[in-house]
Design goal:
Blueprint lengths: L1 H9 L8 H10 L2 H24 L1 H28 L13 H16 L5 H24 L8 H7 L10 H20 L3 H25 L16 H32 L8 H8 L1 H13 L12 H26 L12 H4 L1
């Protein structure tokens, strides 16, 4: 996520035609699917965990509340950007990733509450994911949608100047993440977790291979663009997201081994990944202004690509320290009243 924004904002124009930049953009472009995928994963995992304590109905209500909080935060984020001088007032209504995330999380929360059986929820999430992915090319070309007011149409399909993201296909990553979240929460033993991790890796790699092969076949749609609306590209990215879960587990295990072997510090597996992962919304919130805001003006579009990549690493290191500082400050603090809307960002 940070890499996508840094290379976009700080790299000089002549370097954006280089092959390395194209590869960088592809890799960095996986941040958005992962961001949405993990939002779906966490909302279903959190609901399943809460259901054991407060019951399914209350857990579903709490999940819907969290989704609405994220949706409201999308407008607060845009309002902050406007106050910091980012352009026309109409930008407040622009559909960005948090808008899509909030609505998709609400859909996931509603689906989660339809059944108390995990198997049923997994099936419903999977069906919803396929429907969103497979209908995207049709939604993009549907003439009837042009009758809707632009601010509403912009949620369904991209409109120039009004959408950075749209529900089709991006909501599918949240729904797919909710499917994974149910499976992860069900793996209650070490043996079950190992079996799940193997299954996720095989499923992810299989989805990549099948979708990639399908991309060379004639399209079943009258109009479909591989890089924007094609279901094949959606499932390639979804396969990568799925495979990243067991890969992250391996990194987590390796990190714990290194800490046990080379230091006397307490064994805290996955410190960096888990710390940044829990605060991904906070990182998103603050780094966009750091990258695109006035403070970065002297280096906007002037850095060679290699320096942009170095800057990405440096900014990630800085953000890690900021997140640790935030966690220390917010650890024992409880947000009350109107401040509770900021809980998804600060807690």
């Amino acid at each position: 996520m940070v890499g996508a924004h840094v290379t976009d904002a700080w790299t000089r124009a002549e370097d954006k035609t280089r092959t390395l930049y194209m590869y960088t953009i592809f890799v960095a472009g996986l941040a958005a699917p992962l961001f949405l995928f993990l939002a779906g994963l966490t909302i279903s995992m959190a609901a399943s965990a809460r259901a054991l304590k407060v019951g399914g109905a209350q857990a579903a209500t709490m999940a819907r509340t969290r989704a609405l909080q994220v949706f409201v935060l999308a407008f607060l984020f845009r309002l902050q950007s406007q106050l910091l001088g980012w352009g026309a007032i109409s930008n407040v209504l622009k559909v960005d990733i948090l808008n899509v995330m909030g609505i998709a999380m609400l859909a996931a929360a509603i689906i989660w509450g339809l059944s108390e059986r995990r198997t049923t929820r997994v099936v419903l999430f999977a069906i919803a994911t396929v429907i969103v992915a497979m209908s995207t090319p049709l939604v993009r070309e549907a003439g009837l949608l042009s009758m809707l007011p632009d601010p509403i149409e912009a949620y369904l399909r991209p409109l120039p100047g009004r959408s950075n993201f749209a529900l089709f296909p991006w909501a599918g990553f949240v729904l797919a993440g909710a499917t994974a979240g149910e499976l992860v929460h069900a793996a209650r033993t070490e043996r079950a977790e190992r079996r799940l991790q193997r299954g996720l890796l095989i499923s992810g790699l299989g989805a990549i291979a099948i979708a990639y092969a399908a991309s060379f076949r004639p399209s079943i749609y009258p109009v479909a663009n591989f890089w924007t609306s094609s279901p094949t590209f959606f499932f390639i990215r979804l396969g990568i997201c799925t495979a990243m879960l067991p890969i992250s587990k391996v990194i987590d295990t390796l990190h714990a081994f290194v800490r046990r072997t080379l230091t006397t510090a307490p064994d805290v597996p996955g410190r960096v990944i888990s710390t940044l992962g829990r605060s991904s919304l906070f990182v998103y919130w603050i780094h966009v202004e750091m990258v695109y805001g006035g403070l970065a003006r002297p280096i906007k579009r002037v850095l060679p690509l290699e320096l942009s990549l170095v800057a990405t690493v440096a900014l990630c290191a800085l953000l890690y320290q900021v997140v640790r500082w935030k966690d220390r400050k917010m650890g024992a603090m409880e947000l009350t009243g109107a401040w509770r809307i900021l809980a998804p960002v600060l807690k």
